[in-house]
Design brief:
6% helix, 8-stranded antiparallel β-barrel, Porin, 1 helix, mainly beta, single chain
Length: 194
């Protein structure tokens, strides 16, 4: 069931959004990294995959509310040692959009995510964790054609609480603008005809 849900979200994320009253907004972003470096104890290899889909309902030309999710898997190998980290998070989001032209739109998004993860070493579970995060960020949307387009985010303000199983919580507050860039796609479906 979990794989079917993830596959459905992945397929939906490949469609892409300018705010349009009464429409459904679907979008997301995907990132993948693969690295390998020589090491005397055996080559070090790392793979990371992150997928962040979302779906929302646009109440009017400015306000959208919906659900955002995230799936992260990472694997590091060196010689006979293999470490895997998996996590899943989901939560609500609200977005305020200001359309500047038929092509260019600005928006601000506030989202909360609740998640859990698991760390394994050579197939043995080392620990599990839970997390809570709240993020506020500005972004831009460029309409390529028929409300399908690209979303650009260059940072934001965020808070995260991370608690390993049986351990103490760690809390992080951060502000970053212009240091990290995220590019995603989105698409509006339906909506009121104007």
């Amino acid at each position: 069931m979990k794989k079917l849900f993830t596959l459905s979200l992945l397929m939906a994320s490949f469609f892409a959004s300018k705010a349009q009253s009464g429409s459904v907004l679907v979008g997301g972003d995907v990132s993948y990294t693969n690295s390998k470096s020589p090491n005397p104890g055996g080559d070090y290899k790392a793979n990371n995959l992150s997928f962040n889909p979302y779906i929302g309902y646009q109440f009017n030309d400015n306000w959208t509310a919906g659900v955002v999710a995230g799936v992260l898997t990472s694997k590091q190998e060196q010689g006979p040692s293999e470490q895997k980290n998996t996590s899943f998070n989901a939560g609500p989001f609200v977005r305020y959009t200001k359309t500047l032209s038929d092509i260019f739109t600005l928006y601000g998004q506030l989202e909360g995510r609740f998640g859990s993860g698991k760390l394994k070493n050579n197939g043995t579970t080392l620990g599990e964790n839970t997390s809570t995060a709240v993020t506020l960020f500005p972004a831009a949307f460029i309409n390529l054609k028929n409300n399908f387009g690209l979303n650009f985010n260059f940072g934001g303000i965020g808070y995260e609480s991370f608690k390993p199983e049986g351990g103490e919580s760690s809390n992080t507050f951060g502000i970053s603008f212009g240091k990290v860039a995220t590019i995603g796609i989105s698409k509006n479906f339906g909506g009121k005809k104007k």
